[in-house]
Specification:
The protein is of the alpha+beta class. The chain is built from five helices and eleven strands. It has a single domain, classed as paralog of FGE (formylglycine-generating enzyme) (Alpha-Beta Complex). β1 and β2 form a beta hairpin.
Length: about 325
């Protein structure tokens, strides 16, 4: 459970830097929980993907292709490559294809503010690419569901901050599930919630640091409670509300705000550790299923809560001012 109440002469290769850093950490006693002098910590801001990770192709970070929004045809879907973007209806989420590959899920013991629930670290392999929402689901997209008599007729409050391109908030897990079910019916395509493993894989985008851009939190890159610091970082801005979903630069997979702004419900039931978790990246549907997992941190939360590995659980019928959603879609061969 979380700490809150309810409601980037010749430069050395990145892999060499990471390896040297891990060796230094191990020899320093940090892995055993020793205190670190912040001035001594190597400033590694980028990590590289494991050798198995595919190279991204074509249009990462660009707008959706200039086609009228409509469900993809079989040939169009078969022709998708990692980094391609598409949109299947005027009010549907923009989607980006994430590559197949493998990654190490969870946090090492030396990662500041990590917890036992983020361990044991384990290798998760995705046999096929899948699509992920470029942004969190917005109020405009949610309101399209309402207009089509879906989503339980539920009109969640925007807290007076505005709707439109801001991410929808105040969702329960059941609300999030209702939205993806409506989207699947609306398009006739296999939209769904992300699994917890997919959410972390998409957030990391081939990196191994706490945040996709490096080891320190920054309110220049994400929306969180900047009055609080992470590890040896600095204070920043506390905006006190959500920002539009397209704020800040995207990660290497082309996804915006995978850290901060709103937390994403995922499909998985809560489990206290990764012992026994699926290795294929699918959702874990056993455990404490009255509790569901949330990922990504939020505008109101601490920087440690938006780490790639950070996880939190809430009752599936609970809604709060930072509970949102990012969708997934299967890609046929």
């Amino acid at each position: 459970m979380g700490e809150e109440g309810m409601r980037t002469r010749k430069r050395p290769c990145a892999a060499c830097i990471v390896a040297a850093t891990m060796t230094w950490i191990a020899s320093s006693g940090a892995a055993a929980g020793g205190n670190l002098d912040c001035a001594e910590i190597p400033q590694v801001q980028t990590a590289v993907a494991a050798p198995e990770a595919p190279v991204l192709l074509r249009v990462v970070g660009e707008a959706a292709p200039p086609r009228a929004p409509a469900p993809l045809s079989r040939p169009e879907e078969a022709g998708l490559r990692p980094g391609d973007a598409f949109k299947e209806c005027a009010d549907c989420p923009d989607m980006v294809v994430v590559p197949a590959g493998r990654f190490t899920m969870g946090a090492p013991k030396h990662e500041p503010a990590s917890s036992k629930s983020e361990r044991p670290q384990r290798v998760v392999a995705f046999a096929r690419p899948f699509a992920v929402g470029r942004f969190a689901v917005t109020f405009a997209e949610w309101d399209a569901c309402l207009a089509d008599r879906g989503c339980f007729g539920q009109r969640p409050s925007d807290q007076g901050w505005g709707r439109g391109r801001r991410p929808v908030i105040n969702l329960t897990w059941h609300d999030a599930d209702a939205y993806v079910r409506w989207l699947a019916r609306r398009t006739g395509r296999p939209y769904r919630m992300l699994s917890e493993a997919e959410r972390e894989y998409a957030a990391r985008a081939g990196t191994t640091t706490p945040f996709w851009w490096g080891a320190q939190a920054s309110t220049d890159r994400a929306n969180y409670n900047g009055d609080l610091v992470y590890a040896c970082g600095k204070k920043g801005e506390n905006r006190g509300r959500t920002l539009p979903a397209d704020s800040f630069a995207p990660n290497p997979f082309g996804l915006h705000q995978v850290h901060g702004n709103v937390s994403d419900w995922v499909e998985d039931c809560w489990n206290d550790s990764y012992d026994g978790a699926p290795a294929d990246g699918s959702a874990w549907k056993d455990g404490h299923c009255h509790m569901r997992v949330m990922r990504g941190g939020a505008w109101s939360r601490t920087p440690k809560a938006m780490r790639s590995a950070s996880r939190i659980a809430f009752g599936s019928d609970i809604s709060m001012q930072y509970f949102g959603l990012r969708v997934a879609r299967n890609i046929a061969p």
